[in-house]
Amino acid sequence: MAARVAYRRIYEESSPQDGQRVLVDRVWPRGVKKEDAHLDEWLRDVAPSTGLRRWYGHEPSRFAEFRRRYRAELRDAEHREAAGHLRELAAGGGLTLLTATRDVDHSQAAVLAEWLTGAER
User: Fold this and answer.
1) Which residues are registered as beta bridge partners of 7?
2) 3-state class of 64 per DSSP?
3) Which pLDDT score, from 0 to 100, does residue 27 have?
4) Cα separation, 119 vs 121, whole angstroms
5) For residue 2, is pLDDT > 70?
6) How many angstroms separate the CA atoms of 109 and 89, rounded?
């Protein structure tokens, strides 16, 4: 049975159905106090590289190419350990990936959820 992997904004209320809550942004979200985030982990090393993040700029028209490049990054030495750890967390049960991005369906959290569950578009 495939693990349940969800994604959403960190600004939303936490829920008992979240399972493990992991922030997957490279930078800490504005306006969120660490003690109020209800995180199990902040896994910044799984986030897209600064160069890729800046290139993408959250432009939906670039999302397909962003997804391709980001998935390639998940296999590189800089991301491999964190990506493996995220796979272990997903295998352990429910997992919710958190991001500050407004458009979560065009975010690294969406790409990671797709990657972790094997769901391809």
Assistant:
1) 97
2) helix
3) 94
4) 7
5) no
6) 14
Contact 78, 45 (CB under 8 A): yes
What digits encode the pLDDT tens for the residues 66-97?
Answer: 999 999 999 999 899 999 999 999 988 899 99
User: With contact defined as beta carbons under 8 Å apart, do 52 and 73 qualify?
Assistant: yes
pLDDT at site 120 = 53
pLDDT of residue 118: 83
> Which residues are within 8 A (CB) of 46 and not within 5 positions of it... i.e. 6 or more apart?
24, 74, 79, 82, 83, 85, 86, 112
From residue 6, give the alpha-carbon distance in Å to each of 109, 116, 120.
9, 10, 15
Element (H, E) at 25: none
pLDDT number for residue 121: 43
Please give the residue that has the higher pLDDT: either 30 or 1: 30
Confidence (pLDDT) at 5: 94
Q: How far, in Å, are 9, 49, 115 from residue 78 at the CA level?
A: 25, 9, 17
CA distance 3 to 62: 28
Phi, psi of 43 (to 5 degrees): -105, 70
